[in-house]
Amino acid sequence: MKRTLSLLFLALFLAAPVFSQEPPKREFRGAWLHIVGNQQIKTLSREQIQQWFTATLDALQEQGCNAVVFQVRPQADAFYASELEPWTRFLTGEQGVAPDPFWDPLQFMIEQCHARGMELHAWLNPYRVTSNDQEQLYPDHLYFKKPEIFRRYGKQLYFDPGEPESVAHTVRVIADIVTRYDVDGIHFDDYFYPYPERFEEFHDDASFVKYAADQGFEYWQKGDWRRHNVETLIKAVNDTIKAIKPWVRFGISPFGIHRNLKDTPDGSGSATNGLSNYEELFADVPAWAEKGYIDYIVPQLYWRIGHPAADYDVLIHWWNDKNYKGQLYIGQSIGTFSEPDLENPAVTQTARKFQLVRELPNVDGNVWWPGWSLAPQAQPRRDAPRRPAPEGRKPFALQDSLRTVYQKYPALIPAYTDLDAVAPEPVVSVKVSGKGISWKTAPTGDIFQQPHFYVVYRFDAGESVDLSQSRHIVAITRATSFKPAEKRNGKHRFVITVVDRCWNESKESKIIKW
Fold first, then answer.
1. Which of 121, 205, 282, 467: CA 20 to 30 A from 190?
2. SS3 breakdown of the chain: % helix, strand, coil, rounded to 5?
3. 278 within 8 A of 259, measured Cβ to Cβ
4. 489 or 367: whose pLDDT is higher?
5. Both 462 and 358 in a single domain?
6. Is residue 415 part of a domain?
7. How far apart are CA 164 and CA 237, in angstroms?
C-alpha cells in the first residue's frame, strides 16, 4: 500500500506541465549543507559522520547537483582545523575541543566533492558569534582578547561591523582558508547587521561616534554608514581572495527582498512588502555586484508563487530584470515546491518554478535549502524508529523529480568568463584498452588553464558529435580514465574535454570508438 501511494504521488508530481527542452548543459546546481544548530553531528563518531557526509554527496550527485555550499564557520568558530578560531561546538559538543581521533571535515568534504566532479564552496557567517545567551565561549576566543569589538543584541553576541578589527579578523580567517584549502568558492549568507529585534536598536553608537565623521558621514547618515561598513568587508574579502587564488569565486546569498517598491522613490524596488535587505540588514548586494566585489548572487526566494507579501514570481523577475554583473542563482526552499500550482492545484509549483529559472535569460541555476533533505536516506539511523506517515498522506519527494526529470543529466557550471575566458588545451594521448579509456593533458604553466575536471560525452552510432546537449554527458571527473558501462562492441563513441578552474571548456578529443 505504501509503495502504491508513493508511486501515485510521483505520478501526480510529474504530471505538472514540464517544458519540452532537456535540462541545460550549463547550470549551477548547489545544495546548502548547514552545520549551525545541527545537534546530531556531535553524537556521532568520525566514521558515522563521514559515512553520512559521503552518502549525502552520493545522493546529491545522483540528483544532478554539481556544487555543495558547506558551512565551515557558523559562529566565529571552525568546522575545520584553524589556529585563528576554536573548533565549533557543533562537531564535538564543546567549543575549542578538537575531534578525537583527529580529522578535518573541510578537507574531507573538498576531497569527496572533487572526487564526484562537484565544487565545494566554503560557507561562512561573518559576524554572528552566539545563537543565545546560554552558550559558553572557549576561554581563548577572540571575545576575551578584544571585547570592545563585540556587541550584545537581543540574546546573541555579534562582531560590531563598524569596528575595523572586526573586518580585519574576518579577512584573516578567509585568507587562511583560501591559502590552505582547495576551495572553489567563499560564500556568505544573509547575516550582515543582525535581523532586527523588536524595540531594540543595534548597539553601535560608540563605533559610530568614533569613526563615522572621519569616514565622511553626518550624524543623520547612520544607515549609509552601516552599509559602508559592510561594503568595506565585502571588498576586502574579495581583494584578499583574488590576491591569493584569483580563480576562487566569492558569492553572497542575501535575503530575497532587496528593497520594497514603497521604500524607493525612483520605483526601483520590488512589488513586495517584507523585510528589506538594504534598509534593515544594511547590505547593498546589487552595488557589490556592479562594482565587481562579488562573482555571484543567490537571493533566498523562499516563498511560494502567489505569496501576498513576497511573491516568488515577482521576485525572480525582479532579480532577473535588473541583470546585475556576475552570475545569478536562485536560493530555493525545498518545502515551497510542494505548494499547489495556482492554475492547477492538483499538481505542485515545481514545474512552474523550474520554467521560470530556465526561461529567464539572466538566471544561471539554483541552490537548494536545506540540502540535507535531498538525501533523507543518508541520515544516520536513530535509536527510535521514525514514525510512518499517516495512511493516505503522500510524502513530498523533490529528489525523485530532480533525478528523473529536472536534473536528469550532469551539468557543467556556467563559465566565469569575467575572471578568465581562455579555454584550456584539449586532452592528448587518448588510449583505449580492455580497462577503458585513458588520456593525458599537455603541461601548462598557467594555473587558470590547468585541468580542474574532465567531461566524458557518449554518442550512439550514427549520432553526430554535438557537445551542446546535456544528455550526452556521462561523467564529470577528476580521473584521467573512464570505464564505459557498455560492452566494447564498436557501436558507441566517446569524446573527452577539459574544463578549467573557471569552467571554460576545451575542444573535444579525437573520437573514441567503444
1. 205
2. 30, 20, 50
3. yes
4. 367
5. no
6. no
7. 13
* pLDDT at residue 396, rounded to an integer: 53
Answer with the one of 377, 406, 435 that is the final residue of a domain.
406
Number of domains the chain is built from: 2
Nearest residue to 288 via CA among 278, 280, 279:
278
- Specify the pLDDT at position 378: 85
Q: Which of these, 330, 350, 354, 329, lies nearest to 340 by C-alpha position?
A: 350
| Residues spanned by the domain of 443 | 427-513
Residue 458 has pLDDT above 80, yes or no: yes
Indicate whether 440 and 502 sit together in one domain.
Answer: yes
pLDDT given for residue 388 in this prediction:
42
Q: Is the peptide bond before 414 cis (omega within 30 degrees of 0)?
A: no
Cα separation, 392 vs 375, whole angstroms: 23
Q: Inform me whether the pLDDT recorded for 298 exceeds 90.
A: yes
**pLDDT band at residue 384 under the 50/70/90 scheme:** very low
In sequence order, the 6+-apart residues with CB closer than 8 A to the CB of 391 are 1
- pLDDT at residue 382, rounded to an integer: 57
Report the CATH number that the domain containing residue 201 is assigned in CATH. 3.20.20.80
Q: How many CB atoms lie within 10 A of CB 336?
A: 19
- CB of 284 within 8 A of CB of 226? no
* Same domain for 334 and 217: yes
Report yes or no: 459 and 494 within 8 Å, Cβ to Cβ: yes
**Interval 397-455: pLDDT, tens:** 799 999 999 999 999 999 999 999 999 999 999 999 888 999 999 888 898 999 999 99
Residue 56 lies in a domain: yes
CA separation, residue 42 to residues 130, 355, 383 (Å): 17, 40, 15
Q: Which of 61, 88, 68 is nearest to 77 (CA)?
A: 88
Flag whether pLDDT at 386 surpasses 60.
Answer: no
Residue 413 covered by a domain: no
Are 218 and 114 in the same domain?
Answer: yes
Q: What single letter denotes the amino acid at residue 377? A: Q
User: Is the model more confident about 394 or about 423?
Assistant: 423
Residue whose C-alpha cell reads 581562455 in the numeric block: 422
Same domain assignment for residues 390 and 498? no
The DSSP-derived string for 411-464 is: -BPPP-TTT--PPPPPEEEEEEETTEEEEEE---S-GGGS-SEEEEEEEETT--
The residue whose grid cell reads 555579534 is 158
What's the pLDDT at 435? 87
Tell me the CATH number at 500. Answer: 2.60.40.10
* Domain boundary pick from 345, 375, 406: 406
In a domain, 282, yes or no: yes
Closest CA to 454 of 473, 429, 433, 435: 473
Same domain, 348 and 464: no
